[in-house]
Structure formats: structure tokens, C-alpha cells
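task queued by scheduler; priority normal; single chain, no ligands, no partner chains; default sampling; output format set to C-alpha cells
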Amino acid sequence: MIENNAPVDISSLNEKIERESAFVDILTSEINKVIVGQKEMVERLLIGLLGQGHILLEGVPGLAKTLAINTLSQAVHGSFSRIQFTPDLLPADVVGTMIYNMKVNDFSIKKGPIFANFVLADEINRAPAKVQSALLEAMQEKQVTIGDETFILDRPFLVMATQNPVEQEGTYPLPEAQVDRFMLKTVIKYPEMAHEQLIIRANLKGGFEKVNQVVTLEQIARAQAAVREVYMDEKIEKYILDIVFATRFPEKYNLAELKPLINFGASPRGSINLAIAAKCYAFIKRRGYVIPEDVRAIVYDVLRHRIGITYEAEAENVTSEDIIQKIINEVEVP
């Protein structure tokens, strides 16, 4: 466990984080030129980017999921690629393949769309398991093997996968073990009426303002390193562990009624990602230390896809969000 730092260290750390996170406001305002009202989605994208994780976005079509990551890649000096997942897609369509070159009488490597800083995997559940596995391996290992050559992917590397919760015909749901590799699963809701009015106006005008490149990849790399330095007290670590362990052993936290509703609890990857995401959230709020509110702000996105619910829970219309809500209400806040 981390020992408490002296207050002097915290204040100097605060100053450092304030300096390193100065670009967050500039980047957010640049993205907001195009993305209207989806504050939570933009925040989660930044958390994924700073925490070196990946994001699964779930929402009905037309909620600017594709537009958001495209805009982020324009505002950051990074490359962007989009893969439209379909049932006939092959792993080679994602990672690349070897092509026979008649001129040189040899094989040459053609890299796939995975070789970019920002990769949008649109409707990830529409492609078969082989393709999903190829993408998820690249996400986990941050490298790709084509033939007998291994290529390290460029940093930063952020995959944003989308899935439509409404239409399930002809889809291949992601297995739990693969879903667990996403740092966050964010559910996108409809915009508010005032925001949608602005969206209509902007589209009728003929489009949005031009997005400028306001952040370099070096700044992002520095920020990713600075995020790890954000101070997390032992009490906050214990709070995170209590939340995660309550998903596994609810009866130990006066939540025996949840036992028949939970099929399996969050994995250790859940604890790690909750800690990293809380640090990223504190960084975005330009703070050098984590407070319980940071954990609570991000806990649904980190754990909603890591808790398996039983048939009994489904029969009672209990979701993983309902379970997290009960846990958060019961676990003691430091």
C-alpha cells in the first residue's frame, strides 16, 4: 500500500497536474465545436485516452458516436481509421495481410486499418468471433503479427467500439472475457431538447465549425505518464476494493439479497481499471489526488460490463447498474 505523502508533496503534485492538464479544457472546447451536449461521452473518451484503455459505446444509431472519435482524432495530431464490422469481415481486413508482389517475386506486407492512433470499430457485434478476437488481441497486446513479423502499434492507441442495443438480429454478442478488455462501457443517452435544437441549427447551416489540431501526441504521452502520478490514498484503494469485492461476495457487505442476482463479480481487471479511471477523472478535473467522488463518477462505466447477472435478475428486470447502485449506497465512503 502507498504511504501517505507529506502535504508539501501533494501541493507540488497539484501544481504539476494543473500544468500537465492545461490542454484538457482546450481539447474539450475544440471537440464541443462539433459534439453538442454529450459531455459524459467526451469525458469518457478522454479517460480512455489518458488511461491507455479502450471504450465500448452502446447507444441507438445517430448519437454521434462515430463523429466523436473522428473529432477527437482531428483535435489531437493523430491518425484515425474506421472499420465497419460486418458478418463477412475477415481478421486480415482488420490487422492486414501478406500480398504476393509479382515484380519482386516475393510477399510484401499490407498493413490493415488497426495501424492508427484512433480506431473506430463500428458495430463490433456484427462481425464473427475470429474478427473480434483479432481486434481484441491488438487492443490487449498493443502489437500485431502478420506472417512472421510483429509490429508494435503506434502510441497513443485508442479503440472505440460501438454497438447498437436495439437490433440483435445477425449479431455476435461479445463474450464476457472479451468485453472485460474494455476499460469502460459507456451507455449514450439521447441529447436534451436544447442541445438537439443546436444540432439541428448547425446541420441546417451546412455543418459545424472546423476542428483545429490543438494537442500533440507528445502532450498526450506526457499526460498519460502524469496520470499515473496522481496521488491515491490507501483509504481510496480500500474503497475501490470494497466496491469490487461486494460484487463477488455481497453477503459480506450486508447485501445478501444480491447473492442470487449475481452470476459472477468483477475481475481484478475491474479493480485496476477503476483505480486508473479515477486517477484520469481527477486529472481531467485538474486535481493531483483522487477523492471518493472520482470513484463514484466513473464506477458505472468501469463495472457495468464486468458483472454477470443471473436469469433470476433478468426475470426481475434487475440490471448490473441496479446492482452497482445498491453496492455504492451500502459500501462505506472514506
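post-processing summary
- The domain at 22-219 is CATH 3.40.50.300 (Rossmann fold).
- The mean pLDDT is 86.
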